[in-house]
Design brief:
The structure holds two protein chains of two kinds.
Chain A lengths: L2 E3 L4 E5 L4 E3 L2 E3 L5 E8 L6 E7 L7 E2 L2 E6 L4 E6 L8 E9 L8 E2 L3 E6 L1
Parallel strand pairs in A: 2-12
Antiparallel strand pairs in A: 1-4, 3-9, 5-6, 5-10, 7-8, 8-9, 10-11, 10-12
Chain B lengths: L3 E4 L2 E4 L5 E7 L5 E7 L5 E8 L5 E2 L10 E5 L2 E6 L8 E8 L9 E2 L3 E5 L1
Parallel strand pairs in B: 2-11
Antiparallel strand pairs in B: 1-3, 3-8, 4-5, 4-9, 5-6, 7-8, 9-10, 9-11
Classes of the chains: A mainly beta, B mainly beta.
């Protein structure tokens, strides 16, 4: 079974600064997908970014980028120019590459606080 | 991405009763998933619902407790049966819109259930 570990229960960053959230995972599969979801107090789960394991290039979405280290099974999220609206719980998630029928395995989450 | 709605958005129930949660999608989707998020915790997959077949339950979840229906490609229900305070959680519906391994899961707004 796959596991996802987020070792930072809470992180704090000044507005406009950069913060990195850590995620490691354990799997014996070679084909899989990794995701970062954001959950603000409204509890809506919002996809932030995704990474296909077969791609060596790190995914980027505007201010959000990942550092995907497949050999180390590490998948960190970097948020640049942090904004107040970035404050939320951030969950790292894993999905097997066997097809769209597989559910997600989530980490425990990191609570991100943005200091004005 | 698909637009997903859930009803009710929240409810307070008495122990021993049952609640049915509805998930409606604005487009036809292949797979629907139900997750539970206990207070202060991460998301855990309950079951996967494919139209026209029995739902597939994850370890620790059983059909008698969480019966699921998937009558068509845009709708699913999850029933929480014989509730106890331990069932107090947010229940989230999620969908993928295709059968390829690149599909991303998108989430509904969740149903916050409190059992007294």
């Amino acid at each position: 079974a796959q596991t996802v570990t987020q070792s930072q229960p809470e992180m704090s960053v000044q507005e406009a600064e950069t913060v990195t959230l850590s995620c490691t995972y354990d799997t014996s599969e070679s084909d899989y997908y990794l995701f970062w979801y954001k959950q603000p107090p409204s509890r809506q789960m919002i996809l932030v970014i995704r990474q296909e394991a077969y791609k060596q290039q790190n995914a980027t979405e505007n201010r959000f980028s990942v550092n995907f280290q497949k050999a180390a099974k590490s998948f960190s999220l970097k948020i640049s120019d942090s904004q107040l609206g970035d404050a939320a719980m951030y969950f790292c998630a894993y999905r097997s590459g066997g097809g769209g029928a597989d559910g997600l395995t989530f980490g425990k989450g990191t609570h991100l606080i943005i200091q004005p | 991405s698909a637009v997903i709605s859930q009803k009710p958005s929240r409810d307070i129930c008495q122990r021993g009763t049952s609640l049915t949660i509805q998930c409606q999608v604005d487009s036809q989707v292949t797979m629907m998933f139900w997750y539970r998020q206990q207070p202060g915790q991460s998301l855990t997959l309950i079951a996967t619902a494919n139209q026209g077949s029995e739902a597939t339950y994850e370890s620790g979840f059983v059909i008698d407790k969480f019966p699921i229906s998937r009558p068509n490609l845009t709708f699913s229900t999850l029933t929480v049966s014989n509730m106890s305070p331990e069932d107090s959680s947010i229940y989230l519906c999620s969908v993928t819109s295709g059968s390829t391994s690149t599909d991303t899961q998108y989430f509904g707004p969740g149903t916050r259930l409190t059992v007294l």
